[in-house]
Amino acid sequence: MKAIADRSRCMAAGHCAVTAPAVFGNGDDGLVTVVDAEPGAEHREEVLLALRLCPSGAISALLDG
């Protein structure tokens, strides 16, 4: 899996960092940052939930197979 965040779409709601803190964080400006761009399978559900919860659609993921 590859975790992707589009900072230009981010509205700093913070759902991603709360839902998947091992994968997403917030920069000094409050916008999303990617902490782990290639998280392991143990984070898959968290990343997918963060994707669904993001109000601006800034989170996406490339799934393996």
From TrEMBL:
Pfam families from the UniProt entry: Fer4_13 (PF13370)
SUPFAM superfamilies attached to this UniProt entry: 4Fe-4S ferredoxins (SSF54862)
Highest rank taxon of the organism: Bacteria
Keywords: 3Fe-4S, Electron transport, Iron, Iron-sulfur, Metal-binding, Transport
Iron found in the keyword field: yes
Cofactor requirements of the protein: [3Fe-4S] cluster
Signal peptide: none
Entry protein name: Ferredoxin
